[in-house]
Amino acid sequence: MTTTDLGAAAARLLDSCRKRGLTVATAESCTGGLVVAALTDIAGSSAVVDRGFITYSNDAKSEMLGVPPGLLAQFGAVSRETATAMAEGALDQSLADLVVAITGIAGPGGGSDEKPVGLVHFAAAKRGGRRLHHEERFGDIGRAAVRHAAAAVALAMLQDLAGGP
């Protein structure tokens, strides 16, 4: 997905949310704010975007989103459990109807056999509704490519929760 495609996906999401009266928040680690940036690059996004949490460190995940330190110690920052806790924390700490959380290893270093470079966990949630998890193994395709691809997946998950195009 190109930068243009990312912008188009963000525009579709904003349109869907406006039509349905939904608001969005993000909880981003490895994407460092790319998702909320794609949304807020579009004029009028303030009607939909509530806030974005950039929780790159474990301390930030705990302090801003309430992710339990014990959960981080047991499962690690890059895990289904952490992504899910980040999404729930984003719901708790925002006014948003829809949230997405992203945590992964963009590289070039930091990977292991168990958690290789390119592994990203996503969780999305709708207030009072559906919960989604997705694991993606993009591979060692380069830091920028992993982050960009992860942002695209996150926007698609939000679109799914918003009810399609």
Model description:
44% of the residues lie in helices and 20% in strands. It is α/β, with parallel strands linked by helices and 165 residues long. It has one domain (3-162): Maf protein, CATH 3.90.950. A 5-stranded mixed β-sheet has the order 2-1-3-4-5, with helices on both faces. Helix 2 links the parallel strand 1 (24-28) and strand 2.
What is the element layout, followed by pairings?
Elements: H1 3-20, E1 24-28, H2 34-40, E2 49-54, H3 58-65, H4 69-75, H5 80-92, E3 98-104, E4 119-126, E5 131-137, H6 143-162
Parallel strand pairs: 1-2, 1-3
Antiparallel strand pairs: 3-4, 4-5
Helix pairs in contact: 1-6
Pfam families: CinA
Protein name: C-terminal domain of CinA type S
Domain CinA C-terminal: 10-160
CATH fold field value: Maf protein
Fraction of helical residues: 40-55%
Uncertain ranges: none
What percent of residues are in strands?
A: 15-25%
Q: What series of H and E elements makes up the topology? A: HEHEHHHEEEH
Number of domains: 1
Question: What Rg is obtained from the alpha carbons, in whole angstroms?
Answer: 15 Å
Structural class: alpha/beta
Query: Tell me, what's the shape?
Result: globular
CATH architecture: Alpha-Beta Complex
* Main CATH class: Alpha Beta
Distance between the termini: 18 Å
Number of helices: 6
Supply the CATH superfamily name: CinA-like
